[in-house]
Design goal:
mainly beta, Immunoglobulin-like, 6-stranded mixed beta sheet, 5-stranded antiparallel beta sheet, disordered C terminus, Zona pellucida sperm-binding protein 3-like, acrosin binding
Length: 345
């Protein structure tokens, strides 16, 4: 055992002297990545301790000099790649690592691998499914609303949220053969009940026909759209109902994307600019100027379309917001029942 420990120390010391000069190259493909990691002769016998995520090298070539080339050729479906959506991009990220000791021990070297792609026009995330909470609307429209995971790659698997962290609320309307639609969150409140009654205690999140109040109080905002028929509210968790079951109630509106006005909009407050900004067309942010007063329609344009305007009351929950010091909370799954129901107005 003493001998093994001594050899392990030697390996770590040798690697520490060469890691600073690590020669790593990678190329991002359409659905995969190719990585070439040149290693010193001393490390060739330990190439099995090199990893991309949880994958070992797919090929090891020993060069005439005694050095080696460890190659990793894997799809993003393998090796525990993390997929993230950020703005107009899709990001796949992972880590190259050298782990001379057991997996429970930390790696002695880590190198980030990141592939960034522009999101295709009209791309719809794979989590669009009826299990996330559905309501059938008039004219064959189907509405969805759900809590996403932190990476925004799918429906959240837990409804336990740490105070101050973000809970992405996703909503969408399936257009099918209908004319192009713009989905808006006209009003949203948090409540401790799954149904709203007269006198219910609520915490306003969005009011005044699409003004995100939580962007003034905290760091909440609307994320850039991947499609006009969907919207993601990047909502920072709050103290209201702390430790209790909390439900997010929203009035969703399907509207004509060409007819934005002061009553049909999505506005959030940008602290860096100290002003309100219109999500869908920042140059028209003057439509958000009423967010500090009362937003009313100034003209009758769109009245002919109003009869086709569809609104639905939707609810996501129960969500449980806990303080960081609370370590007794147990995660529970958010399913397709009461955890992500949508009620139709």
């Amino acid at each position: 055992m003493v001998t093994h420990l001594y050899l392990g120390v030697i390996v770590l010391a040798v690697f520490a002297t060469t890691v600073a000069n690590a020669d790593i190259k990678f190329e991002c493909g359409k659905n995969s990545v190719s990585v070439t990691w040149k290693i010193s002769p001393e490390l060739v016998p330990y190439a099995a301790r090199l990893f991309l995520g949880n994958c070992m090298p797919s090929e090891l070539q020993v060069l005439p000099t005694g050095a080696g080339e460890a190659k990793f050729n894997y799809r993003f479906d393998d090796c525990k790649f993390k997929k993230m959506m950020k703005g107009k991009h899709i990001i796949y990220q992972n880590e190259l690592s050298y782990r001379p000791q057991a997996k429970s021990k930390p790696a002695v070297f880590v190198f980030p691998i990141k592939c960034i792609y522009k999101r295709p026009e009209g791309w719809v995330p794979p989590f669009l499914n009826p299990g996330s909470g559905v309501s059938d609307g008039h004219s064959g429209l189907v509405f969805h609303m759900a809590l996403l995971n932190e990476q925004m790659t799918g429906i959240a698997k837990t409804n336990i949220i740490t105070l101050g962290s973000f809970m992405p609320i996703w909503a969408a309307v399936e257009q099918k053969s209908h004319q192009p639609l713009l989905l808006l969150m006209e009003e949203c409140v948090a409540a401790t009940t799954a149904e709203l009654h007269y006198g219910s205690q609520v915490y306003p999140l969005i009011s005044n026909k699409g003004c995100l109040l939580e962007s003034v109080r905290g760091s909440s905002k609307f994320l850039p759209r991947y499609h006009s028929s969907a919207i993601i509210l990047h909502l920072q968790s709050f103290k209201f109902g702390l430790g209790e079951e909390v439900y997010i109630h929203c009035k969703l509106v399907a509207w004509d994307p060409e007819r934005l006005d002061e009553t049909k909009k999505a506005c959030h407050f940008v602290k860096e600019k100290a002003s309100w900004e219109l999500l869908d067309d920042p140059p028209q942010s003057s439509l958000c100027s009423c967010c500090d007063s009362t937003c009313k329609s100034r003209s009758k344009r769109g009245v002919h379309w109003a009869s086709d305007s569809l609104s639905h009351n939707s609810v996501v929950g129960p969500l449980i917001i806990v303080d960081r010091s609370d370590t007794k909370a147990n995660s529970t799954l958010v399913g397709s029942g009461s955890a992500a129901d949508v009620q139709v107005q």
